[in-house]
From TrEMBL:
Protein name listed in UniProt: Replication factor C small subunit
PANTHER family: REPLICATION FACTOR C / DNA POLYMERASE III GAMMA-TAU SUBUNIT (PTHR11669), REPLICATION FACTOR C SUBUNIT 4 (PTHR11669:SF20)
Residues annotated to bind ATP: G43, P44, A45, G46, T47, G48, K49, T50
Subunit structure: Heteromultimer composed of small subunits (RfcS) and large subunits (RfcL).
Organism: Candidatus Methanoplasma termitum
Similarity remark: Belongs to the activator 1 small subunits family. RfcS subfamily.
Chain ranges of the AAA+ ATPase domain: 35-165
Segment forming the signal sequence: none
Pfam families cross-referenced by the UniProt entry: AAA (PF00004), RCF1-5-like_lid (PF21960), Rep_fac_C (PF08542)
């Protein structure tokens, strides 16, 4: 249990990467040719961007991959001095062994300042014979156009539920973890396409040393049960504001949720309510307003209770 499962079960080959076949097939072509352009991996967290970069380096360099693969996190050092100093120093050094070039992997590259990105594009051109860059980012729009035009862009999509479930089953089998079938489905729901979140949540639940149930999953992942959120909203729509507020208190205390956590789950529950599409549109509009106020610093309890009051009034107009 001392080792993080996301590292222990990280795929070591491009064929093992889950749910991104349209990307891995193109990357395997680079491995076959022994060459590659600068790359940009864009997409949500936990979808395999870092894994693909490491697997690509393994395929290109074999046993020498660690000496020719440099990983830097742009969110730690994001200014122009880093590009002119640290990155440039790494880029100008020759690759090890028989490799013709090395790979610099810039994780969270969208955190680089505009000045740093502008300085980086010249480094990419000057040392392209001995160095290739792989940029990893959540939002490609934050990367300046001159860098994007120098890269082959790969867009990662959230993983499908089936892919996450099958991968978790492999881990459960190897770790000999006892888990209920509905708890496994709960993990997939909590992950929302993020494999890292799914595996980390499974390890936290397994660390309790007992049978993993649905209750354990939601308690360890900091999420309320969807049915509890739905019941709270239905209670408000039925006109029982005090009952709905008591349910809100219980949810926030029992699961230790913040106002933003609750508002996100409320948003996903709208589509399960027995109301018309026009009413769902009004609810989404109101929820967006409440979420904005919470982010801007308003009291989250007051804002959440205001949303429940709005549901009560909406239900009252129907009665």
């Amino acid at each position: 249990m001392n080792e993080i499962w996301t590292e222990r079960y990280r795929p070591k080959d491009l064929d093992e990467v889950v749910g991104q076949k349209h990307i891995t097939e193109r990357l395997k072509a680079y491995v076959s040719s022994g060459n590659m352009p600068h790359l940009m991996f864009a997409g949500p967290a936990g979808t395999g961007k870092t894994t693909c970069a490491i697997a690509l380096a393994r395929g290109l360099f074999g046993d020498e991959w660690k000496g020719n693969f440099v990983e830097l996190n742009a969110s730690d050092e994001r200014g122009i001095d880093v590009v002119r100093g640290k990155i440039k120093e790494v880029a100008r050094t020759a690759p090890l062994g028989k490799a013709e070039f090395k790979i610099i992997f810039l994780d969270e590259a969208d955190n680089l300042t505009s000045d740093a990105q502008a300085a980086l594009r010249r480094t990419m051109e000057k040392f392209s014979k001995v160095c290739r860059f792989v940029f990893s980012c959540n939002y490609s729009s934050k990367i300046i156009d001159p860098i994007q035009s120098r890269c082959a862009v790969f867009r990662f999509s959230p993983l499908q539920k089936e892919d996450i479930e099958n991968y978790l089953k492999k881990i459960v089998e190897k770790e000999k973890v006892k888990i209920d079938s509905d708890a496994l489905e709960g993990l997939v729901h909590v992950a929302r396409g993020d494999m890292r979140r799914a595996v980390n949540s499974l390890q936290v639940a397994a660390s309790l040393g007992k049978q993993i149930t649905m209750d354990v999953i939601y308690q360890t992942t900091g999420m309320a049960k969807p049915e509890e959120i739905k019941k709270m909203m239905e209670t408000a729509l039925a006109g029982n504001f005090i009952g709905a507020r008591d349910m809100l208190d219980n949810i926030m205390i029992s699961y230790g949720l913040s106002g933003q956590d609750v508002i996100k789950q409320i948003h996903t529950s709208f589509y399960d309510l027995s109301i018309t599409d026009s009413e769902k549109v009004r609810l989404i509009d109101k929820t967006g307003e409440i979420e904005f106020r919470i982010v801007e610093g308003s009291n989250e309890r007051i804002q959440l209770e205001a949303l429940l009051a709005y549901l009560v009034m909406m239900g009252g107009n129907k009665r």
